[in-house]
Each structure stands twice: as structure tokens, then as C-alpha cells.
């Protein structure tokens, strides 16, 4: 109890010091899972109220998430007042209040085909997603080693999944690939290097599994795709400068967002290995978003 109390005092001191220099914030971007949403994927009333108040102050509200747009709509209804959604880690941008697609960045047909061949030949468990904005649909391929996490993801998304036929690969652009491996830092770094050497057009983003601890999700996108670049695009659309932005996240795949925003925070439920990188705020179960923007609303 004493340790928890000390950490809460530290949170408030850090917020006070940081928010003193945050008078000019015009855009706030937040990750969804593990940050804005609670663990059961619901939204706390303090977070929802903070979002409304930001709008009253004409501060632009952006959700920046790894979810595709269909999955965003599973956790955000029309009454949740975001202005923009940067989805699929920045592969697409959607104007939430106008229901309008504004931006898409897919992998080229050449890179998509090369990655398909490489992953199949390596016997990896992976999913390959249709181009934005239809990227809730995807192909799946079971590798040589059974993977429980792969099957869990498949079962959650089987309605949108088609089995990949190695003899008849899709001849099209693709939005992204998701490769699932057991958590092992050496294996991840080796596979990341191998994947990035295949095509100059691609980049690899690491994410902790939101389904089961002990697995790494390796996401492969066009090299320009990131949450940070997605928020940058929103800034260009709205005339907001990078020094007028704030971001909050909770995982490795939020680094691009938090590196871009001028004032950036990690939630207390983020992996311990990365908590030194940005100031901490309370966990997603303790209204992280509402706490982080509180001083903007005073």
C-alpha cells in the first residue's frame, strides 16, 4: 500500500511539472487497448468525460491504434467523440465524425508477394491482410509448428479469414502481415533482421500480445506506416504543429507515436522494460487518459 501511494504521488508530481509547459496543446492522441480502454475493452466515465471536455476546448482528439477500422468500431460507438482515428498502426486514417476515409498506405504487390513466399518457405504462422480499407479481411497460414496464440487469434477473427493457398497466392497489394511467435528476444531480433532484409519498402513493428502473455506479435507494414506518421498526417490536415501535440500509450508499438508527440506519457501497465522511456501516468484501469489530460482542462 505504501509503495502504491508513493508511486501515485510521483505520478502527480511528474504531471504537474510537464503540464506547466503544455498550455499550447491543440491535439491529443491516445492508444486504445491498454491505454484509453480498460482491460475489459470498456471506457471509464472519467475518460469519456475528459474526451468531451477536450472537444469543448477545441482540442483535436485522435485515437491511434493497431486495430483495423472494423475492430475500432467494436469498442467505440458513434457517441464516443473522437475526431480522427489512425488505425492499423497508421496504415489508414478515418475522420470519425464525418465517417470518411482520408488516407491509406499499403504494401506494394511486389513486396507482398515476396513476403508471402518467404513466410511460407520458413513455415511461419502468419496472417496477411487485405489492402486498406478492407483490411479486416485476411488470409491465414498455419506454419510447421503449432501455435496456440495463432489459433486464438484465428478463432477471434475466423469470420473474416480465408486460408492461404500456397499454389495460388493473391496477386494484390496487402496492408500488413502479422507473424506470431513465442516470446524470445533472440528469436525476435533474428527474425526481424531477416524480414527487414527482404524488401527496402517494409518495416517491422513489435507488439506484446493483447490476448495471451508470453507471445510476440511481429507486424510488417510499409516503411512509412506508423502511429506517429499517422498523427503527423492528421496534424497536416488540421494545421497543428508537432510541438502542439500530446500522446499517451502503453506498449512497444506506441514508440513512434510518443516519439512524435511533443509531450508523451506511458501508462503504469506498460512493460517494465520500457517504463524509463517516458513519464508514467496511472494504469488503464485507473483512468490513465483522464489523468494525463486533466491539467489541459483546468
List the keywords:
alpha/beta; Rossmann fold; Hypothetical Protein, Haloacid Dehalogenase-like Hydrolase, Chain: A, domain 2; 2 domains; 8-stranded mixed β-sheet; 10 helices; disordered N terminus
Radius of gyration based on Cα positions: 19 Å
- Arrangement of strands in the largest sheet: 5-4-3-2-1-12-13-14
Relative helix content: 25-40%
Give the helices and strands as they follow along the chain. HEHHEHEEEHEEHEEHEEHEHEEH
Average residue pLDDT: 91
Q: What is the CATH domain class of the largest domain?
A: Alpha Beta
Strand content: 15-25%
* Domains (count): 2
- The number of helical segments is 10
| Amino- and carboxy-terminal Cα gap | 29 Å
Return the CATH architecture of the largest domain.
Answer: 3-Layer(aba) Sandwich
What is the fourth-level CATH superfamily of the largest domain?
A: HAD superfamily/HAD-like
- Structural class by SSE content: alpha/beta
Oligomer status? single chain
Looking at CATH, which topology of the largest domain would you report?
Rossmann fold
What is the approximate shape?
Answer: globular
Reported for the largest beta sheet, the result is:
8 strands, mixed
Query: Uncertain spans, ≥5 residues at pLDDT below 50?
Result: 1-5
Q: How many DSSP E strands?
A: 14
